[in-house]
């Protein structure tokens, strides 16, 4: 008579290994996205003043806490689905390295601490923006990501909120030009991400809305955003800015957009932050654009 299948037990995980796994689950590489909080202070020339730099760094830290908390909560909610994904199954929560209850508790603690850190700016506006960001990310985790098209806009809106928070932190007005460029750029990144995920998909879709999108539709969204964003940036750079530097920044800006589209067409873009961290031409184009903007702010 068969004794039945042997029971297997997962090897004990050391505290050090679990701590390393928890740090990985915070996704520190994705903190690159939080650099958007520096965009408005840089454009307004406030980033290099002591008060502006302090407020911008506080906003950056608050969004790192908020984003990592949201990632942990999202990974806990998606653990079962992530185990079916060829790449996501290796994430600390999906792999079992970090227990789901621990991920939930750690995520909640980080989410609560984010508005508290934002309050170090001395006002209520930045904590309110951080709280709105958390509400949006939680809404995405538990509902919005299952709604086609809405999920694209929700993820793009998270990037826009980051950029808006930078303006709130340093107390500068947000222009319509700024919001339009950031919104279109964010939507382009999200469409490219979904397009890369769609191409890499094997078997059944592990993302709820992925099957609703065709590669042609996502490419059309990306193309629409690219064209509209370039036109908007050109109008902003060529109006009300004395000196040549803002106008010259159009060239590297267009190169950034074209380079991103090329990389997505090649199959990259599933992790947009990896493009910024690894693609040397993209890094050079971004650096040149930032240098020209800084020169335009301080020399004209």
TrEMBL record:
- Membrane topology note: Multi-pass membrane protein
Q: Name one GO molecular function term.
A: transferase activity, transferring alkyl or aryl (other than methyl) groups
Entry GO terms, CC? membrane
Q: Which domain of life is it from?
A: Bacteria
List the EC numbers from the record. Answer: 2.4.2.45
> Which CDD domains does this chain map to?
PT_UbiA_2
Q: Where are the transmembrane segments?
A: 51-73, 93-118, 124-142, 174-191
Compartments it resides in: Membrane
Q: Which UniProt keywords apply?
A: Glycosyltransferase, Membrane, Transferase, Transmembrane, Transmembrane helix
Identify this protein by name.
Decaprenyl-phosphate phosphoribosyltransferase
This chain's source organism reads Spongiactinospora rosea
């Amino acid at each position: 008579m068969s004794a039945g299948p042997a029971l297997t037990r997962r090897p004990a995980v050391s505290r050090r290994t679990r701590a390393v796994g928890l740090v990985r689950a915070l996704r520190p590489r994705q903190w690159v996205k939080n650099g958007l909080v520096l965009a408005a202070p840089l454009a307004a020339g406030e980033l290099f003043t002591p008060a502006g730099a302090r407020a911008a760094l506080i906003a950056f830290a608050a969004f790192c806490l908020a984003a990592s908390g949201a990632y942990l909560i999202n990974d806990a909610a998606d653990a079962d689905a992530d185990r079916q994904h060829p790449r996501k199954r290796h994430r600390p929560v999906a792999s079992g390295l970090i227990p789901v209850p621990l991920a939930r508790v750690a995520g909640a603690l980080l989410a609560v601490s984010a508005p508290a850190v934002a309050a170090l700016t001395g006002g209520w506006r930045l904590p309110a923006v951080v709280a709105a960001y958390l509400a949006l990310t939680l809404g995405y985790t538990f509902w919005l990501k299952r709604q086609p098209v809405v999920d694209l806009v929700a993820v793009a809106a998270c990037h826009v909120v980051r950029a808006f928070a930078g303006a709130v932190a340093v107390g500068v007005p947000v222009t319509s030009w700024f919001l339009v460029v950031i919104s279109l750029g964010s939507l382009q990144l999200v469409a490219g991400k979904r397009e890369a995920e769609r191409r890499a998909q094997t078997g059944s879709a592990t993302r709820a809305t992925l099957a609703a999108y065709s590669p042609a539709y996502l490419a059309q969204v990306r193309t629409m955003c690219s064209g509209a964003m370039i036109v908007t940036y050109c109008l902003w750079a060529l109006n009300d800015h004395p000196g040549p530097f803002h106008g010259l920044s159009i060239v590297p800006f267009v190169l950034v957009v074209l380079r991103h589209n090329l990389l997505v067409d090649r199959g990259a873009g599933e992790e947009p932050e990896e493009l910024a961290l690894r693609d040397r031409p993209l890094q050079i184009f971004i650096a040149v654009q930032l240098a020209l903007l800084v020169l335009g702010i301080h020399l004209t």
